[in-house]
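[retry 2/3] histidine kinase: previous attempt timed out, resubmitting with same input.
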Amino acid sequence: MTAHDDTGSSGRLATFFATDDDWEREGSITLGDWLIGALVLVASLLSLELIRGVGTLDSSDAPTWVEWTAVISGAALLVPRRRFPLTVALLAGVHMFVTGVWLPMVMGLLPMQIIYFVAFFAGAAWARSRRDMVIVMGTITLFMFAWIAWQFAVGSGIDEFRESTADAEGSPLIGPVAAYVLLTTLINLLYFFGAIVGGQVAWRGARQRAELAEQAATIAAQSGQLQRRAVIDERLRIARELHDVVAHHVAVVGVQAAAGRKLLERGRPDDITGAAEALGNVEASAREGVTQMRSLLGTLRDPAVDETDAQDVRRPEPRLEDLPALLDEVRASGLRVDYETVGPVEDLSLALAHSVYRIVQEALANVRRHSTADRAQVVLRVDRGAPAAYAEVEITDNGRPRHGTSGSGLGLLGVRERAAVRKAEVDIGPRAVQGFRVRVRFPLDSPVPASAGAAR
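[retry 2/3] histidine kinase: success.
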């Protein structure tokens, strides 16, 4: 049981002194260190001369220059204490011992005691290796207490104390000598262990501040990465939206222009009227395409646009109410389109309705560009009573692939990206009988990142 307690105590001490921590506290000699050393030097020399003036140093046989040398060398230890903490602590221990043996009155000066305390404190607070710190500071402490014990055992301090307290009554509970020994031991315990423990607490505080600074730097770096990622995502969104807008309107322009050219070639009055109508559709589609492109590119032109103005400036946000107008525009190009809704489609969110609109727009643009179809069907279904509530849009046609009209694939890629953002199921490909189908099923209970939903 005792061995277990010793092991636990050793483990707690190792944890407190962080002997397994490889972090190193970097210290350097600064102007402040020189100023502190100079200030302490002046205070120490002034104290020394004041004590000399009182006559306390009359019993000392040491020359004045030796006393001054002891004071100056002690104050000099404070300058490199953070750059060479353990070396300074060792030198302070040697200085304290040598001065205490030959110049005890100088060693006992308050400024000198402050110098030693700060040196020991710095050894614990600034040591690079915590294991070396424990060894060095432990050695200094044991040596100092051995010195104190030696003074009690064979020194003249006890005899001098007995002579000075021979006429004192003392305490009935404890004798003067015992009280002197206990008081001296307690003061030195507080002195040395206070310096070491206080230095370790300061080291742990610096360690924690370094961790917080590292975490702050990591967060700042991640924030910058997220910002760059957001910019990239926004530009990809603009590129996809621009592709959808341009593809749709260019397809309308191409079909109407071709129809107008054929009518003009015939030269009949009725055909001229139809050609004029086709050219009007070309003009309207071109104007609408330019308007939407300007809205989309507003963000690229003006990076200062904030989120408050983004809804009006940087992108169009089609709603389901705009879908019939899109279908009428497609019908005007000669493609018959049937539209059917099933379920409470009016309850769809704006972001989801925008995705549905763009998917329908891209699918019908592909039908006009790459298919021989003369008929298409758009079905929008919303089922909130299903085990997994969903909204589904399906676009089918009755045509075959038109040769020589291969596209870039960006349109269908955009459809898949919109679906992936909302974890939707995608079915794109030829139908078993005839024609082509684009079907996307969005789960209504799937959470979508706000930024992704707004962007798309």
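[retry 2/3] histidine kinase: Residues 67 and 103 are 7 Å apart (CA to CA).
[retry 2/3] clearing retry counter.
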